[in-house]
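Listing S7. Sequence submitted for prediction.
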Amino acid sequence: MKQLLLKICFAFLTASSLWSCAPEIYTPLYIENTKYLGKAEDRGVTMEYEYNILQEAGNHEYASREKKTGTRVVAIKVTNNSGVPINFYQDINIYAGSRKVTFIDKDVAYKKLRQKSRKHLWYLLLSLIWIPTDNGNDLFPLGAVVGGGITVYRVTRTRAQNGKFRRELYVRDLSRREIKDGKTAYGLICIRDTRFVPLSIKAFEADYLPD
């Protein structure tokens, strides 16, 4: 009877552990359908932007890490009516107030914002629990089976969700994309946290600097 109760308890523990505090499923950012609340214009270039794109999509753990790390993912919609093709990273400067915004490399931003898999390793402590077998003479490492299974499941799932996030940062990267005159492009930029200060832009700023 005692062994049966132990097995029932472990079965309950396994089920609850798999579903409670599980790794967050990453939700894609449908930035083409986003309602952009911010807008900045200069020399025929318009940039609409939305700060809370991760939070609004339901990616709460990634959004919480934005606050912890001072890294912000911003969705942007860029419309080019300047008369010439533009490269967003080369031809446009972004300002938060009077301060020029610093872009963060997508790989650096990913490492700061990704879900951490090591927090699931504590389940390996269950490996310390053994239960008697039916004959009462031997011990079975039930804790190792349960703890190891939970750990592998959670770490694998965390890495899968992080992979989705990383791919989106790459697919939405505008750094090497030319935006032709009369066209609109959507993308994600990673910047240092500006505490939601309204953004402004200056287009072709380098062309207007004195020699």
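Caption to Listing S7: primary sequence and predicted structure tokens for the chain studied. Helices lie at 2-19, 53-56, 60-69, 88-91, 106-113, 142-171. DSSP finds six helices and eleven strands in the chain.
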